[in-house]
Amino acid sequence: MSAPETKVSCKYGAPMGRGSDSLADFAGCKVRLRRVRLNGDYDQGGAYWGAGMPLWFAECDKGTACAYLRAASRNAAKMLILAQTARARFYR
Asked: What is the domain extent for residue 74?
């Protein structure tokens, strides 16, 4: 899994998004949740995401899970994670 700043390397065009772990993998983690700024439909590393709601990157403090999700706000992104695992905690 790569963070949105990691440059993509493709022979033909940009990949569609990036890999993502299951939100259930965040059980017992303290989660760093940050918004991914898009330049048009692409992240800083060049991966294509298309248009839609804001994109969020969630990362477990233990380094065991990372995920991308679409949500209208940070609180909505938290609720999506908590719906899969109530045991996740979040950094401010």
From this structure: 23-90
pLDDT at position 24: 87
48 in a structural domain: yes
Is residue 34 a contact partner of residue 57, using CB atoms and an 8 Å limit? yes
Tokens standing for residue 9: 């390397």
Q: Percent of the chain at pLDDT above 70?
A: 82
Residue at 29 is within a domain: yes
The residue with greater pLDDT, 56 or 6, is: 56
CA-to-CA dists, residue 38 to 18, 23, 58, angstroms: 14, 22, 16
Per-residue pLDDT band for 57 (boundaries 50, 70, 90) equals very high
Count structural domains, the chain.
Answer: 1
| H helices present in the chain, as ranges | 74-84
